[in-house]
Design brief:
heterodimer; A: alpha/beta; 8-stranded mixed beta sheet; 3-stranded antiparallel beta sheet; 12 helices; 18% strand; elongated; B: mainly alpha; 2 domains; 72% helix
Chain lengths: 372, 463
């Protein structure tokens, strides 16, 4: 009995570690993890220099867990175990009702807000055209009450209010606009972005503040994808939640011309990039994803031109602005390093919109470039 | 390399074991010597040289002392003194240089630059281990090891290299010569290793997240401070005893038998008992190589109290290069002295009170152990006794309690012998089936956490 038991234990252990040893060595390495939306670590190149400075072993450790056989299954198992213990959080993401994934928001300290506002004011002072600031509160604000009681989740509208009180620009209270439609599908459940519907309501109040208008009832949605699994999904490991639906409300009008500038040479682009729907990061469907500078000629003559300093939320908002402006310029300060004020002067801009999610506004240091 | 990593578990260990059992037994020490250096060099490619130097130094001293021991006692003593001094010097240079120079600068107002040397992993453990060998040779407790590879295998033996238990040469001298690797021993090694892995990965890392939440908090309520302190007490125990379990288990897989290092310390009824159950190999080391040579309890009470003070000041400092560790050692010296003088007798009156007192002293002690400055410790203690000014409890505490209650409950039960004695009461047949199933479950769950987790620091790793 004893002898048999010990043979079984020995065999089990040897098979387990030996089996995965062989599997890990024999199975081909995977380049990209769609679930996690990142490139996995490949086997590092050995050199004595990289061994001595520790980078070889560090990368080899990463490699060993990144390329572990059945990696996704292991991650899901861990996420399920956490839930089983009564924890609703994994890797900083909370699983809330209706399978909504929420990453709580932590407010920055006063000094950081002041610094950002100073940059915005510096930009305003250098221009004599209207500058409007619109900060987007995320799902953690609108659906914050779904988080377990006691989880730290600061108010994003509070942060926005503090910012608005410190800047000398006009502002749009998107918090109110989104809150009013909280029962509709305005945020993706698995991603931090707003849906096209959320963007539509935001556009409505932004345009209103600019003296234009937009009637939401005019538009009917068209579904383009029902399998969108966003960034919160990737971080969380809750790989069983149901995917999101991507919809569009406006088709690209006749005469629309979009040019994206990765460097000095423009590349023509589409309002919707259908090919991106076959990739993991389906949000890049809107305008084809991140780019330092985008120039849109709407084909409508005689209307003003708008410069948007923005993060990726603007990509899905732009379709709703096409009837109001002749030219729309988008600058992403993470990649566009020259002066935004100079850009506005060089391009005959009539007004500027600074459109950021609250969390990007406080966490993205490139915003301080606005001062230049 | 740490045991609770994918690299160790699924690359290094299978390769080491496969070759170890395929080659003839006379080459096994040489193989171990080689893979020990790979294990150590994985995290410390440069300090492998220091390790080899330390091996050579103590090997040479051992041989010299062995030669002079019987006829030229004085010369042997001189070699021993030099060897001990050199070992301690290495430890001081690599571990305490910044602390000593920094403190001197502050006191004398000078500005000598801090060397800022990275601490070689496990130096505190292997210095003590190697240092005791020439002492044992001098005392006649161990015979001289003439085979360099064998001695090197002992010093760098990867299972206990970086976090103990502190294995003494005389305890495994015979095993270095010949050991019997059997299926039974291997299986019992697997059991110990997997249990240790579970303690580390499933329990320690888990409650560690809770401790981190409170350790870094700007303010803490009383409930929060206790939640954090409980979490840390469990984390440290499972982290360290899990490591010892893994070390003992790995040793058995390779045919070695190490001494136990933990014996359910949290069920102790006095501080004196606690230190007979916590990190046993360290306590024994200090007793045999410092306390008893200082005279122990044989030179009257005042001298004994002084000896306790010296031993515990150094025990504290051994744990880390920060004056808070010295205070932590003295904190225990205080309780040990008070117990020796009168408290121990009083404690015998009430079983409940003595456990309550012991666990309180230990938990408060861990804060002194873990927090970086006296100011922080005082703030934490204040919160624990309700003087923190942040109130009794807040919503956050309730959330953390709810999220971590299962881990804390399982942890508390596992810190006592309840589970084990219950398991041993099951019929033999049931146990024979249950053991492999449980082990496989722990192994699978631990793997899931390891694959996912970047959160995997070893607490006793930097000592």
């Amino acid at each position: 009995m004893e002898k048999n038991r010990n043979k079984i234990i020995t065999a089990l252990f040897v098979c387990f570690i030996g089996g995965f040893f062989l599997a890990n060595i024999l199975l081909p390495d995977i380049e990209f993890s769609p679930n996690e939306n990142r490139y996995l670590q490949r086997f590092p190149r050995f050199s004595f220099a990289s061994l001595a400075d520790g980078s070889f072993t560090e990368k080899a450790e990463l490699y060993s867990s990144d390329q572990f056989a059945l990696r996704d299954r292991w991650i899901t198992l861990k996420a399920r175990l956490e839930l089983l213990q009564g924890k609703r959080e994994n890797n900083g993401v909370f699983l809330c009702s209706d399978e909504r994934l929420i990453e709580p928001y932590t407010a920055p300290d006063e000094a950081l807000i002041e610094k950002r506002c100073a940059a915005v004011n510096a930009l305003t002072d250098r221009l004599n055209i209207p500058v409007t600031l619109a900060l987007i509160p995320g799902a953690a604000e609108i659906y914050g009450e779904q988080l377990p009681a006691g989880v730290r989740n600061d108010s994003q509208r509070q942060t926005a209010a503090e910012v608005y009180s410190l800047v000398r620009t006009g502002h749009v209270d998107l918090g109110q606009a989104l809150e009013a439609h909280r029962d509709e599908y305005i945020f993706y459940r698995t991603d931090h972005h707003w849906t096209s519907l959320g963007a539509l309501y935001a556009a409505e109040s932004i345009l209103e503040s600019a003296g234009a208008s937009l009637s939401p009832n005019k538009y009917a949605p068209r579904t383009v994808s029902e399998s969108f699994c966003g960034t919160a999904y990737s971080t969380s490991g809750f790989f069983w939640v149901k995917p999101d639906t991507i919809q569009v409300f406006i088709d690209a009008p006749q005469g629309l011309r979009i040019e994206k500038y990765e460097d000095a040479k423009p590349v023509s682009a589409a309002l919707y990039d259908e090919e991106k729907l076959d990739t993991k990061d389906k949000y890049r469907f809107f305008l084809g994803g991140n780019c330092p500078r985008v120039h849109i000629s709407t084909g409508k003559e005689g209307l003003p031109s708008l410069l948007i300093l923005r993060d990726s939320y603007a990509d899905s908002l732009v379709p709703f602005l096409l009837d109001t402006y002749s030219q729309i310029h988008l600058l992403d300060l993470r990649y566009y390093r020259a002066s935004a004020a100079q850009y506005a002067k060089d391009n005959d801009i009539d007004s500027v919109l600074i459109l950021y999610s609250v969390s990007d506004f406080v966490s993205d240091p490139s915003l301080d470039l606005l001062a230049q | 390399m740490v045991f609770s990593s994918i690299v160790f578990l699924f690359y290094y260990l299978p390769a080491v074991l496969a070759v170890y059992y395929l080659i003839p037994s006379r080459y096994r020490n040489l193989w171990l010597f080689f893979v020990n250096l790979v294990f150590y060099g994985w995290g410390e490619p440069v300090y492998v040289l220091l390790m080899v130097f330390s091996i050579a130094l103590n090997y040479g001293s051992g041989r010299l002392i062995g030669r002079y021991r019987t006829q030229r006692r004085k010369k042997a003593k001189a070699v021993l003194a030099w060897n001990t001094a050199l070992n301690l010097l290495l430890l001081i240079v690599f571990k305490y240089a910044d602390l000593l120079i920094g403190t001197f600068n502050r006191l004398a107002g000078t500005a000598f630059p801090l060397p800022g040397l990275a601490l070689p992993i496990g130096i505190s453990f292997y210095t003590f281990q190697t240092m005791s060998y020439p002492i044992d040779v001098y005392r006649g407790d161990a015979s001289v090891q003439k085979d360099f590879i064998r001695f090197g295998t002992f010093v760098a033996l990867f299972p206990q290299l970086i976090a103990g238990p502190i294995v003494r040469y005389k305890d495994i001298a015979d095993q270095l010569e010949s050991r019997h690797e059997t299926v039974d021993r291997f299986a019992s090694g697997v059991e110990r290793f997997v249990v240790g892995l579970g303690k580390k990965v499933l329990l320690a890392n888990n409650v560690g997240v809770l401790w981190d939440a409170y350790a870094t908090a700007a303010s803490r309520t009383t409930a929060g401070a206790w939640l954090g302190a409980l979490a840390f007490s469990l984390q440290l125990y499972f982290d360290f005893s899990g490591y010892s379990d893994m070390a003992i288990g790995l040793g058995r897989m390779l045919g070695f038998e190490f001494r136990e290092n933990f014996d359910y310390p949290y069920i102790s009824g006095s501080i004196t008992e606690f230190w007979r159950r916590w990190h046993i190999s360290l306590g024994t080391w200090f007793r045999d190589y410092l306390y008893i040579p200082l005279g122990g309890n044989r030179r009257g009470l005042p001298r004994q109290l002084l000896n306790i003070l010296i031993v515990w000041a150094l025990t504290g400092l051994w744990h880390g290069a920060n004056w808070t560790f010295l205070l932590w050692g003295l904190y225990y010296a205080l309780f040990l002295v008070v117990e020796k003088l009168f408290l121990l007798k009083k404690l015998q009156n009430s079983a409940i009170m003595c456990h309550f007192y012991t666990i309180l002293v230990v938990i408060f002690g861990w804060m002194l152990f873990q927090l970086d400055s006296v100011g922080e410790v005082v703030r934490y203690w204040q919160a624990m006794i309700g003087l923190g000014g942040a109130g009794l409890a807040e919503a956050k505490d309730l959330y953390y309690l709810r999220s971590f209650l299962p881990s804390l409950a399982v942890g508390t039960i596992c810190a006592t012998p309840l589970l084990k004695s219950g398991f041993l009461r099951l019929p033999e047949r049931v146990r024979a089936v249950l053991t492999p199933v449980l082990l496989l479950t722990i192994l699978v769950l631990s793997t899931a956490y390891l694959v996912n987790s970047t959160y995997n620091p070893f607490l006793y790793f930097r000592f």
